[in-house]
Structures are given as C-alpha cells and as structure tokens.
Amino acid sequence: MLALEAAKKKAAYIIILDIDEQAGINVCKEIKTVGTDCSFVKVDLANQSSIAQAVENIYAIVPSIDIVINNAGIVTGKLFHDHLDAEIENTIAINLNAPMYLTHKLLPGMLNNHAGHIVNVASAAGMAAHPKLSVYAASKWGMIGWSESLRLELEQGNTGIKVTTVTPYYINTGMFKGVKSPIIPLLKPEVVAKKIIKSIEKNKIFSRMPGIVYAMPFFKGILPQRWFDAVVGKVFGVYGAMEFFKGREQLEQKNNDIS
Fold this sequence. Notes:
This protein is of the alpha/beta class and 259 residues long. The protein is 46% helix and 14% strand. The protein has one domain (2-258): NAD(P)-binding Rossmann-like Domain (Rossmann fold), CATH 3.40.50.720.
C-alpha cells in the first residue's frame, strides 16, 4: 500500500523487500501499472546476514537510496507468560533489530549524498502499555527511542537527512484481526499509507494517527498512572482491545518498502 502510494506520487524507482517472493513480485507488477519502475529483493528480516545480502542486491540495482520506509512487523497477541521463546525472539528481531540493521547499512550512502529520509513505522502501542501486546509494545517502544535518537544525531550533524517516526493506532489488516476498539476506530490501510507519504512530503518529525494519539504524551505526562489507566483502559477501551484478537494463522511480516 505504501509503495503504491509512493508510485502515485511519481517516485523514480521503488524496491520492495519481503520474505514472500510471490507477494513481492505481485506488488511490483501493480506498481509498474502506475508508471513507476520497481524491483523485488528477497530478504529474511530476522536474519542479519540476509539483510546484508539484500543491501548488496539493492545497490546492484540502483546507485543510491533516497527514502527508506521501515514498516515490517509481526505480532503475537497473548499474555507474556504464554509466549514461546521463539515468538519473543522473532518479534524483537523483525520489529526492532531489522530496521536498525537495514538503516545502518543504507545510511552511509545517504550521508555521502547529504540527503535522504528515513521513515520508521512504530505504533501507538509504543507510547502506552497494552495487555496481550507486551513483546510487540516493547519492540515498538524501542523503535521510537531509536528513531528519535537517530533523528537528533542526524540533525546535530547537519546531514540533510530527515527522520519521521510514525505511531498509528490499530490498522484494520489481517495482522490485528479480531481487535475490538469501542471508541477509537481502527485505521484503514489506505488512509495510513496516504498520511505517511504526506508526512514525508512535509518532513514531519512525528506522524500519529488518528489525531487523538497526539494527546497521549500530554496525558501521560500530567495524569497519575492510575488515572491514565482509567482513561485509556476503561473510557477508551484500549486495554481490552486484544481480548478477542485472532491475528493471522501464522506470523507474517509486512513489506519493508524502500523507494
């Protein structure tokens, strides 16, 4: 979805990274119908060596990268003590480690060009605790901290590289199938994609969605924790949203788009 929106904005070239080869090829075909050239590079984002090889493959296709969108993600919706070790490891590897490894290898080229934009898609769950999302929330809290630190470093170094941190609420995809949110509606994927692309165009530091998520840091700062729990958990029903979570039958990772 993000890659398609980028293509509609006349991106010069788009490279899709995914572990699912057929899915990646299909996305590229759709992008080409819009008039933008596209290539697919297979990668296992849970494997550091695979990421390194993918970056080599990228530079065999294009000489430089202008925009990196880190939006790969998996989720295991269960109580923390019910998690398998492998679920914890995979969630942290794909949601947190992979964006850092990938960006670390692509950043030198951007520094040489003194330009670029890095977009890190985290989650509103990285700003407030969610029952049955402990490991996922941990990965997204980590991503927000890394993304913000990276932004400050790049700004202080006058590198010309921008960083946007995205913190959406639940997005209505198969990844969060079964989530119930009585007050805050689930986000439509196409709406999220358009807002992220617009955030890149405007060089926004944060892109939070829906708008009420912008108030979360303020309320966390002024409210006693029990009051915050009452507002977020009981009034907005966030703490019970995962009660009927089903998700996908198997952990899947979303595309990590690079344009």
